[in-house]
Amino acid sequence: MDMDKVEYGWWLPVDVSTHGAQIDNIISVLHWFMLVLFIGWGTFFLYTLIKFRARPGHNADYKGVTTHFSTYLETAVAVFEVIVLVGLSIPVWAEVKSDPPTPTEADVVVRVVGEQFAWNIHYPGPDGTFGKTDVALVDQSNPLGIDWKDPAAGDDITTVNQFHFPVNKQVLVNLTSKDVIHSFALPSMRVKQDAIPGMTVPVWFEAKATGQFEIACAQLCGLGHYRMKGFYSIDTEEEYAAWLKEQAESASFEDDYY
Ligand code: CUA
What we know:
By secondary structure, this protein is of the alpha+beta class. The chain has helices at 20-51, 69-97, 237-250, 253-257, and strands spanning 108-115, 118-123, 157-160, 162-166, 170-177, 182-186, 191-195, 201-206, 211-217, 230-235. Bound molecules: dinuclear copper ion.
């Protein structure tokens, strides 16, 4: 992968996800709301500092505020927060996160296994079936613990920190971890999901543009957390097929292992 071509974006990361606009809309509304609150309360704070400063001939008033203005204001803020949550966030969450595709519905199914400090990526190969894996087989040369004696494993492809998938296709990632909790973050796909040992968590998305981007680990997971990054390439269908073929030809895990 050509690292010079990795895109980041100057403010929010470049958005190439079909569901990204909805997430960005929430982020945008929340930040404008916070800006209004910040300026509002900040101005009020400065006003009180000046208005109630110590001056000769002015004594403290122990009665406090007698109007209900601040109560109304706080109620309005709370109402707006409920609107943001119920009217905006929950519907987007329900649409984007609550209905995982089955492995047959998804166009591409991949396993991603986090470890300190790398992302192992497992493709099923042309037969579409993942080879069996077993923790007892995990070692330096077989980080995913693939059982190469399993007939379904023969054509499997594995990579470390290099993730490819095709544009305009639904991708289903079955995510887990070998050791501690990591978080699989694809900022430009607006995807972020904890990778939890002992659990397989489905993550799904679809890209609307090609390009090269960074995978981050978004959960502090140890001393090497900062360097637990990978790259992903969103390819055209032809590029993706060519890449898979190239990986299959250069795959040498099996030969190394036996
Ligand atoms: Cu893995 Cu941070």
